Inverse folding.
């Protein structure tokens, strides 16, 4: 809990940044492997909050002193649980499957699969070792102004979430 209090601004800033970056990576991935240009997000804006959420939980749970195998296990569990739960929630809200891994090897109800979990482990490790340090430096350099950036991004994100739920979901 102390880590969250001490790093809340950084975690929030990173949530938004990671959500946008992985939205872009999803587009590139889809173009390369599916030859389709699609909006990979469930919201209108250019972000995938599932990645931001996973990032925050992974960063909070993986300590620098953890051995690599424990980081891998934490990333695997975090990504699989988040992906499964978000898939379930989105199916209930939007009445459609956002992704389906039924044809993939070692899948659970088509919501998670070994292949994607391995990709998320790789992405998680890359984030921990190569993304977090420069983003933390950038965050620290921004000083107090980053609070206002977080507020603006938060308002935009919440407005998008509300509009999306009102227009796309039948609650």
């Amino acid at each position: 809990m102390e880590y969250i209090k001490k790093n809340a601004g950084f975690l929030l800033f990173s949530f938004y940044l990671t959500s946008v970056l992985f939205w872009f990576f999803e587009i590139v991935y889809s173009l390369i492997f599916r030859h389709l240009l699609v909006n990979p997000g469930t919201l209108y804006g250019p972000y995938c909050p599932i990645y931001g959420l996973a990032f925050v939980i992974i960063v909070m749970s993986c300590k620098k002193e953890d051995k690599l195998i424990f980081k891998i296990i934490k990333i695997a569990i975090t990504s699989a649980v988040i992906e499964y739960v978000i898939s379930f929630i989105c199916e209930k809200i939007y009445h459609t499957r956002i992704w389906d891994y039924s044809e993939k090897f070692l899948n659970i109800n088509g919501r998670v699969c070994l292949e994607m979990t391995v990709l998320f482990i790789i992405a998680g490790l890359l984030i921990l070792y190569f993304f977090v340090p420069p983003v933390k430096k950038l965050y620290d350099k921004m000083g107090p102004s980053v609070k206002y950036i977080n507020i603006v991004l938060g308002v935009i994100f919440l407005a998008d979430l509300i509009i999306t739920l009102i227009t796309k979901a039948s609650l």
The first helix runs from residue 2 to 33. The chain has a mean pLDDT of 90.
